[in-house]
Specification:
The structure is a homotetramer.
Chain A: E1 3-4, E2 9-14, E3 20-26, H1 36-46, E4 63-67, E5 69-70, E6 73-74, E7 79-84, E8 99-100, H2 106-113, H3 129-144, E9 149-157, E10 160-161, H4 184-199, E11 206-213, H5 227-236, E12 241-246, H6 257-260, E13 264-266, E14 272-274, E15 282-283, E16 286-287, E17 292-298, E18 307-312, E19 317-321, H7 331-352
Antiparallel strand pairs in A: 1-2, 2-3, 3-7, 4-7, 5-6, 8-18, 9-10, 9-11, 11-17, 12-17, 13-14, 15-16, 18-19
Helix pairs in contact in A: 1-3, 1-7, 3-7, 5-7
Catalytic activity (chains A, B, C, D): 5-O-(1-carboxyvinyl)-3-phosphoshikimate = chorismate + phosphate
Function (chains A, B, C, D): This reaction introduces a second double bond into the aromatic ring system.
GO biological process, one term (chains A, B, C, D): aromatic amino acid family biosynthetic process
């Protein structure tokens, strides 16, 4: 289903080239201060056309609040956020009506549903994620009330990687460059790579790292709804994501148990802490009060402005080239989506934790 | 909640040292032939004490069918499977009643619930996964009817990795050695490493690779319940898992879009296929009929038979050493758990797909 | 939550005097032919201002399809239906901003949420049911494909009751008069009563009877999601509903078991039938192929154009009179809502039944 | 599905003549004091063989706690309660293996699932409700902490009705007689009627009235999960229930709006109250702090010890008579089931209300 979350729950709708896209947020507690402008700020970070590194399409993406907010406060009723599509009729998509674009969802949607709205990818378009970003802005407002900060950044593009861990970065620099990498020298190299790839009419993938600070101990649910299971599911639900790891992740296998275990201690302020954080702030699926961090792998975008061999819906071989304006690298625009989905998971877990004890 | 799945839905219960553990399977279609013996076969693969590589604890783990199966067929009503705990009173757990074991869930459960059943880890013990394995055996029976085969194997232990991809392995060899690695030479080296680690009273992690063959195109749900999102969530819900990647995964970022895209073609039999399978059999969250494959990272087990520094529930520094019989490496016993959770996801998606079209 | 249904699932949003109201339909199978015009027809039956028996407010209630329908067919993606509110700023609601109207939801919303959108009842307004009617039109299209017909009618207003059972009525006459009672003489008497009540500035309640024909045997789920449990829940969720009974209902207690039991027989066509239908077409929570029928009680509308004693949100006694244009009797306009909710339950059960057997 | 509730959630399993029946309670907050003995007390009220008015079958129905309770407190993990069936092999059910008993679920289960466990009705047997009663005892413990009292009683058997409302009864007398009617003279007449019916080998139905006192204002969820919608659904899910009404119910249509509205006032203690309570303590689907009351109609039991005409699973006419020991009237034993389901709904709503506000 097109619903995510248990108590803080969103349902998105809309196709890339239909009238618009939107989201219903159900379960947001009453009394949360929020304005359309605050939601717009989040949307603007995902908007196309922000720099020469992303698609030159310029879309306004203005959010309209249709319900659930009254006098700049949530009322406890469903919040409907709607974003009209611009120029929905301006493009010609007849060349892909019957084509199966490589590594897109054209073939699989046809197999599943027996039909698809082929215009711009329809429902499978990454445009749908704008609705998630809008909802995430509301979730983040709830996190604000608990002092929880979500900071995602681009940590690798192709083979160009930030050489240090997040602890050694100034996360305040994330938006200081169009790549959204808070390590300025690496950001430059990433930007260069993206421009090269763009000029070759190709695309490149990368990693987003996300850090969540200020999470109280006790969030997350055993055994299937572990905090990291929900985060992983949320990330894997973002278009183009191929992998998720948290804490020590895949490289944790290179440590032995005696090295990997995070020793507990009580600090001077009487706070329980761990000397290392291979656990990534989550133990047994529940937050332990340390920083949560995880990494998300995005494949190179499937739409390339080169001719490719594929088939049409009759199974006949054809060649096909992408048209129009596309992102050579989605990573910079993926950052606000990772932020949003992370905020949504945490908002949900905050509400669920209210039922922990009598 | 302790429930997994939407239409083919399981709910597990039970603590490591309570009377027993079990699972309720709800939504299994009527008319599926299944016997307790078939479930037992799956459980036996997860059972402790199978070789010198795993814990020498010997637990019978006999499954009892309490409901839902009549005359060796499912009836459509809930299937209750129960496994009594052996010797539940035989161990002394007083040394950990007030201790927070490093990288275990003791601290976080206390933070969340204000109490915990500390005996053997209680609910957070990996013993709970036996219930999942039992349920997975029923799910696999449903997959059998559709020709879907799930094959998991140990692909890496510490730094010892299978040097080839799954396509070059004989998956029939998985159970031919106690490591459950179908590459015999590598299996030997893995076994050596595990014995070394065991003798050092340490532990080691690794990867399980899972391959699913025979999946029809069209399984999976946009946009949040993508097939790989559900698989990822299922894997991340297994104890000790730190990461999940499918298809090209994390290394996919080293390819450009023009290299990563999987070109469609129609084979001689008229079947739509792709020339490469970086997509891992899933496009837009929906199966495309090619092999599904993914990889799961397990950290080294947290229980080590060495003394470690930690704190107790008063925040006081203590030192603590694991007692009893534990696995130096969970990977061989993780294989049937990965199999089970994969089967459960696919069984659920098979049922969900029945509502795709009018 | 504001979601109804399991597989054929709707989520409604919107307040009486916000920008608009709407519904997201998720899980509707692909390939269902449907047009905005067909949805509009259902909405027009619920629309205010249809006769002198209902509120003279004239609202256009035009439905806009925002997603999920392409080339007049459902695509399997969420269907968003939106109805803009007219003249949302034209009324002055300051007299009820701080008042608790008797037998309205003003007090309880304030108690629950600490605030409310007081304009026209906000979310608790019956206006929200327009969204349900729009969704029900889509559900009915699915039922059409299975030959299932839902027919609701007004069977009692105040003490004026249709003197015969549904079997003796021509259900084709339901829309032949503004009361929506297919027994013309009774309809006349009901209309007279409603006009009298209206002229006294009072309101009156009544019953809607619903008959569902053509339901195949086998719909409904034991043990909690029985077909009649879901129907009952759906009806009780409609504003002003106070009771639900199906089959013999409350009067069934006047029969002994030997009289109440419905004897099975096989008719000439080889169909299994029952000689009586006290079961109301449902046995053990599952449809048995006979007609389903039930009855729903609506209280008199709470808004009356008379002065009433009540309190304000400071607990102070005040007197208050309804203003504007209201329904003296909601029964005629409740009929399409009962139709819609019934269709939604059955559409959901039709999809759920697809998982009954392997 | 066999699951009820959202946050305080139960899943029942088991057949009448399988090894046993049981329930998993998921979402019960940690720290609730509860013992097996307390659960047993509730079960004993539902147990067969309590008086000469109910079935003379004597079943011990001993509850076993399999998980989730440690040191007489809930731990926050799933609570598994199991009740072994006695003498599961002692009866011969071959006479109904192929017969469709009138007004039972035999035919509909066969239609739905293509098979059924025919022994004693299998899953459709009212025996399943013992699991609900056990779970309800845990829910009631949670209500105790909030001062919420649930009191159900038999208010009518056949045409013999308690002549006064619940306000004029001493609810402490409910268990003072085997009928569970707190109006002693009426209880006598009911008992007489039940004995007459029993001696005629027939059965009789009736009403249970339920009163819930001490409910705080603010429980219940708009718009589909109204408090009375959930109560209605819960009641309609009990075997043999044909109707539900709350507050003024079906007879509310005989009042005009000016009579039916409940005027608010502030009492001497500063509490908001209503002068009448036609609303039954629920307005807009949310509790208003007044007493909640509702009424549930039970049909006469379908199993009668008389010969009846019916068909077998080949569609052939047969005659069939009930055997063994059955209840001539389920009302006395239905009382604890109504109590249990009511407690479960309220426990769920209590937890859900924790997410109302920031």
């Amino acid at each position: 289903m097109n619903t995510f979350g248990s108590l803080f729950r969103i349902t998105t709708f809309g196709e890339s080239h239909g009238p618009g896209i939107g989201v219903i947020i159900d379960g947001c507690p009453a009394g949360l201060p929020i304005t359309a402008e605050e939601i717009q700020v989040a949307l603007d970070r995902r908007r196309p056309g922000q720099s020469d590194l992303t698609t030159p399409r310029s879309e306004a993406d203005r959010v309209e609040v249709q319900s659930g907010i009254f006098r700049d406060e949530t009322t406890g009723t469903p919040i409907s956020l709607y974003i009209r599509n611009q120029d929905q009729h301006s493009h010609d998509y007849s060349h892909i009506e019957h084509a199966y674009r490589p590594s897109h969802a054209d073939f699989t949607y046809d197999q599943k549903y027996g039909r698809r709205d082929f215009r711009g990818g329809g429902r499978s378009s990454a445009r749908e994620t704008a609705a998630r970003v809008a909802a995430g802005a509301v979730a983040q407002k709830l996190l604000d009330q608990h002092g929880i900060r979500v900071s995602s950044y681009v940590s690798q593009v192709g083979a160009v990687a930030v050489p240090v861990g997040y602890e050694q970065l100034d996360l305040g620099l994330i938006d200081s460059n169009p790549v959204r990498c808070p390590h300025p020298e690496t950001a430059e190299r990433m930007a260069d790579l993206i421009r090269q790839v763009r000029d070759r009419h190709d695309t490149v993938g990368g990693y987003v790292t996300c850090v969540v600070q200020g999470v109280p101990a006790g969030l997350g649910e055993p055994v299937f709804d572990k905090l990291h299971s929900e985060l992983g599911r949320a990330m894997l639900g973002i278009n183009a994501v191929k992998g998720f790891e948290y804490g020590s992740g895949f490289s944790g296998v290179l440590l032995f148990g005696s090295e990997h275990n995070d020793a507990f201690y009580t600090d001077e302020a009487g706070q329980v802490r761990t000397r290392t954080n291979h656990s990534g702030g989550i133990q047994g699926g529940i937050s332990n009060g340390q920083d949560i961090y995880f990494r998300v792998a995005f494949k190179p975008v499937a739409t390339i402005l080169q001719s490719q061999q594929t088939i049409n819906d009759q199974g006949e071989a054809i060649s096909l080239a992408g048209r129009g304006r596309h992102d050579p690298c989605v990573l910079p625009r993926a950052v606000p989506i990772v932020d949003a989905m992370t905020a949504l998971v945490l908002a949900d877990m905050l509400l669920r934790a209210r039922a922990n004890r009598v």
